[in-house]
Amino acid sequence: MAFSMINSSRPRRRRVAAAVGVATLVGCGAFAANAYADSPAAPYDILLGVGSDETSRNLAWYVPDDADQEVVLQETKRLRGGEFTDRARVVDAVEKQNWVGATTAYNARVTLDGLKPNTGYSYKVGSSDAWSPTYTFTTGNSGNGRPFSFLFFGDPQIGSSGDAVADGKGWAATLEHAQRNDTDAELLVSGGDQVESANNEDHWNNFADSSDVLKQVAWASTIGNHESGGQAILQHNFTPNTDHDPSFYPGGNTATAAGGDYWFTHNGVLFIDINSNAYRDDSDPAHLAYVKDVIAEHGAGSKWTVLVYHHSIYSPAAHANDSDNKVRRQDFTTEFSELGVDLVLQGHDHSYSRSYQIKNGAKADARETPDQNKVDLGLGGVVYVTANSASGSKYYDLTAPSDPSYGPDPLDTSDGRKRHWANAAENQEHVRSYIRVDVRSDRLQLRGIRAGDCDDLATNPAVARNNVKWCGSEQNNTILDPATNKVIGVQKNVPVAETGSLIDGQTYTRHAKNGAE
Asked: Domain Calcineurin-like phosphoesterase: where (predicted)?
C-alpha cells in the first residue's frame, strides 16, 4: 500500500465540524514509509462502514491527540504514482472526546457521499501530524436488482477465548480467507458482539486492526449484548440513518442504549438493523414499529428485505431456550411475516442454523425437508439464519430440543440428538465460518462456508486453548503436550472437512414480492 500525506507546509484549516460533505482541493507530497508507524499521532482502528446506499460510505477512527482530522479521497484511477493529486477531495471529520483507560484519545467520523457507483476510490485519514496508509474501496453497482453478494459474520467477540491477540489472528484469518475467495462481495454484515468487553480498547484494537479488510470493504455493524454496556461501539462504528428513540429503551434502560436501530439500502435490498438488547419482557412494540415504518417508507423500491439483529430466535445451542427468545418467537415471527421480511440474520449462539420457511411462527410448508437445497419462498415465508463464530474465539455446542414449544423436528431421522423443529440445518464443528449470500432479482442463495479447519490451531483459539475438547466431530479430541498441557493437535477419529468447503447451502426462489397474503 502506498503512503502519502497532504503537504505539511499547507496552513491548517479551521475545522467545520458539521460540514461532512465539504470538498477542498489540496496539494500532496511524498511521505516516508516509516513515518506512519513511528508517529505517536497516527490514526488507528479505522473502520469503513456502510452508508445510506451503495454510493455512500461512513468512516470512523481513533487518534491519540486532538489534531483536526480529515479524509483525503480520490478515484483510484486518478492517483499518480500512488499519490493523491491536487484534484483530491478533502472532508473534515466530526470529532468528540473519548476516554480510553487513563489516556485521552479522540474518535473521528466522516460521511463520504455523492460517490459514483461501481467505482474504485482511495482514501487516507489523519492530519498534517500523521496520516494513515492509503486504502482503497469500491462502491456498489447502481440499478435496482443487479446481482451482488455480501458476507455475514457471527460473533468475532475478540477477547472471549481469554487471549485477545489470538482471537484477532483468527478473525484476520477469516477475513483474509473471504478476501481471497469471495472477491466479489460488496458488503460485510455483522451479527454483533465484535468484542467481549464493551469498553475494552485492547479488544477493539484486535478487532479493527488485525486485518486491513475492514478498511476496504464496507462493514455493517450490529450491537451485541457484550457491547451494550458502554458507548465504544458508537465511537468505533458510524452507522447511517440511526435512530436512538427513547421508546426503544423501556424504563430508561441505559445499559442497552448504546446502539440504535438503523437502515440502509444496497442495490435493491433493504437492510434493517435493530438493537435486540433493548427488549421488554413481554413484547417489543417500539422496535417492531420501527421496522414497520422503515419498510413502509423504503420497502416499495426494494426487491428483498433483510433484517439483522444479534439475539437468535431459532438458535440451536446454549441460548435456544432463553426466556427472551421464547417471547421473541411469539411476537417477532408473525410481525415479520406480515411485514414481508425475507431473511433474518442473527448471531449470539456461536453455532450455525438455517430455518425452514417460517410463517407466523410455524413451518410454512410441511413438504420442506431437512437440508433441502432449493425452496420456493412463499408469501409470508421468512428464513432465519444463525452464524457461528467468525474468529474461533468461542463456540457453543448444539443442544437437545427440550422445550415443548421448540421441540424436535419430526423429519429428523438421525440417531442421537434431534435438530429443533424450526431448523432445516444445524451445525457445530468448532471451526471458524461465515455465510455468503448471493442476491438476484428472483432468488437468494445462502452458503455456509468453513474459513478454517482442525489443522488450523494457530487461528482457532477456542480449540488451541482447550476451551473446547474436540474439532470437526465429537468423536475427535484435542491432543495435549504432556509437558506443557498445551493443545498440539487434534486426534481425528472421524475425517474433518477442509477450509473453504461448504457447511450448508440453499437457494430460495420467489414467485412474487414477499408479504402477507
From this structure: 149-352
- Taking the C-alpha atoms of residue 508 and residue 57, their distance in angstroms, rounded to an integer, is 29
CA quadruple 317, 417, 429, 490: dihedral sign: positive
CB 186 within 8 A of CB 218: yes
Per residue in 123-180, pLDDT tens? 999 998 899 999 999 998 876 668 999 999 999 999 999 999 999 999 999 999 999 9
Q: Is there a domain that residue 493 lies in?
A: no
Q: Cα–Cα distance between 266 and 303 in angstroms, integer? A: 10
Q: What residues make up the domain containing 299? A: 148-455
Q: How far apart are CA 323 and CA 244, in angstroms?
A: 25
Going from the C-alpha of 505 to that of each of 170, 368, 373, 434, the distances in angstroms are 24, 15, 6, 12
Last residue of a domain, one of 439, 455, 471: 455
pTM: 0.91
Minimal CA–CA distance to 317: which of 253, 394, 223, 224?
394
Q: Is residue 499 part of a domain?
A: no
- Together in a domain, 174 and 70: no
Domain boundary among 406, 435, 455: 455
Residue 159 and residue 114 share a domain: no
C-alpha radius of gyration, the chain, whole number:
23
Write out the three cell numbers for 380: 409470508
